[in-house]
Structure formats: structure tokens, C-alpha cells
Amino acid sequence: MAKGNKTNSYEEARKQQLLDNQKRLQDLGILNISKSLSNLAKSDKKVRAQQKVRQKSNAAYMLEPRRSTRARNPVPSYRENLDVLELPSLRKRSRFSSSWASYLARPIEEVRVASYEERSQAFKAAEKLQSNLQSGNPSFVKSMVRSHVYSCFWLGLPTRFCEDHLPKSTTDMVLEDEEGAEFDAVFISKRTGLSGGWRAFALEHKLDDGDALVFDLVEPTKFKVYIVKASHSSSQVNEIEEEGEEEEKAGESDEEEETKHKPAKLGKKRGRPSK
């Protein structure tokens, strides 16, 4: 009990001493001075921080004046200037990434990457083939990329063509190759593309990156598909041009034969004017 009383009296005396000291400081005005000094120090720090921020923002927009009389070098453009319509752009990356190769549906040694020249020649050959078609049906040319023929197997079709000529709802369609073999596919109107059976068609014909296909709408839900391979598109261009020239010559010879067998029209004899 004696120890408890001693500690309590000590704490009370200490508290009383602190209160007395605080009153003396208040009487002398020292507490107010210390508070004002601390407030000034805080405001000074804020002003300096704002000045630093403003200096940085101003420095970001300052440009050193150009003193050279030499013309400034043109800004390089990394966009490929393709003169072929509707060709998809390809990202330059390593030949085959491990993650992408795991989704391949064909052996990796069969996968090829077409050059710009091969892709361009194949597309132009397909356009020439399209112009030689005598069907008069709606048609379009589509250049193949790797996601069309190796892994994803989703083939997007031209939006305007789908709006003008294809059904407005999801429909089963038929893809017929040049030999008459037919493949079932699914046209998804909302996404304007072919799914489902397109994978079987691409794998069966071993389509590659850069190949160009002509889609001829022979029936409302049937495409006749003509394939131009990018690997030997130059030879196909020559064949298509030769076929076109032969058709033109055949048409000219038929016209000549018709003109030979037609009887010549006799002109009316003009009588001499009566005197």
C-alpha cells in the first residue's frame, strides 16, 4: 500500500508540474510562436514543391531552336504501302512463336510465310481470273493469312458483299472447289464470316499464307471457289492470260465466220432521173 501511494503521488506531482510549465509558456506566448513557425515552415515547403512542378511542366514543352540550315530528315514511315486492295497487314515477329505453334493444325514444316511480292502476284492473278469469269454472278477476291489457314480457321468476308448478297441470319452454305467437290460451312451473318466447315476446306486443299481465292456466288447459299497459290502465282498468271487470249480469239473467229455465211445485202439501184 505504501508503494502504491508513493507512485500515485509522484504521477500527480508530475502532471501538476507539466500543467504549470504549460501555463508559463502560454503566459510568455512561446506556444503561439512555435505554432506560427511550424505553419510557416509547412507553407514554405508547399510553395517550393509547386515551383518544382511548374518548372518541370514548362521544361517539357520547351524545344531548343534549330540552328542548322540543312533540311530536317523526313520522319520514317513503317507502314507498308500495299497497292493491292483488301490485303491484311502482317506483324513482323519471329518466324513461329512457341505459343502460336502449339495451335497449328498442320505440321510446322508445311507452314510458310508469303512475301509481299508473292502475296501481291497471287492477288492480281485472282483478280484476273475473276474478270475472266463468264457467270456474271457476284464475286470477290480474298487473300489468305495464317489465321485463315493454319490455326484459327475463321474467314471474315467483305462486309458490303455480305450485306448486299448473303442471308441476314446464320445459314448453312456450300463451298465447291474447281473439281466439283463440295464442303459444308456455316455463315454467321452478325460476324460476316465463315466458320465450321471452312477448316475442312482449308486443310483439304492445303491453303497457305498468301494464297488468293475467288469466291463466286453461283447460288444464294453456294460459293464456287477458285484457288490461286502464292507459291506459283506467276505461272498461274500466264495461264490465265493465255486462256483469256484464246477466248478472245475464239470469239473473233466466230464473228468472222458469221459474217462470211451471211448473204450480202443488195443495195437499191437508183433510176436515172426522167428528162
Describe what this molecule looks like in 3D.
The chain is of the alpha+beta class and 275 residues long. The protein has a domain at 112-238: At1g16640 B3 domain (Beta Barrel), CATH 2.40.330. Helices cover 46% and strands 14% of the residues. The chain has a seven-stranded mixed sheet with strand order 1-6-7-3-4-5-2. A hairpin with a 2-residue loop joins strand 6 (212-219) and strand 7 (222-228). The longest helix is centred in the first third of the chain and has 32 residues, at 30-61. It is elongated, with a radius of gyration of 43 Å. The chain starts with a helix and ends in a 14-residue tail after the last helix. The model is unreliable at 56-61, 77-94 and 263-275 (pLDDT under 50).
Quickly describe the structure.
The chain has 275 residues and is α+β, with helices and mostly antiparallel strands. Helices cover 46% and strands 14% of the residues.
Q: What is the strand and helix layout of this fold?
A:
Layout: H1 2-28, H2 30-61, H3 98-101, H4 116-132, E1 139-143, H5 146-149, E2 155-156, H6 159-165, E3 171-176, E4 182-188, E5 193-195, H7 198-204, E6 212-219, E7 222-228, H8 233-261
Parallel strand pairs: 3-7
Antiparallel strand pairs: 1-6, 2-5, 3-4, 4-5, 6-7
Helix pairs in contact: 4-8
Shape: elongated
Characterize the largest beta sheet: strand count, sense, and whether it forms a barrel: 7 strands, mixed
H-E order: HHHHEHEHEEEHEEH
State the total count of DSSP E strands. 7
Percent of residues in helices comes to: 40-55%
> Could you tell me the strand content as a percent range?
5-15%
Return the average pLDDT rounded to an integer.
74
> Strands across the major sheet, in which order?
1-6-7-3-4-5-2
Any low-confidence stretches, pLDDT <50, length ≥5? 56-61, 77-94, 263-275
Rg, nearest Å: 43 Å
Write the CATH homologous superfamily of the domain at 112-238.
DNA-binding pseudobarrel domain
> What would you say the CATH architecture of the domain at 112-238 is?
Beta Barrel
The tally of helices reads 8
Report how far apart the termini are. Answer: 173 Å
What is the top-level CATH class of the domain at 112-238?
Mainly Beta
The CATH topology of the domain at 112-238 comes to: At1g16640 B3 domain
Structural class: alpha+beta
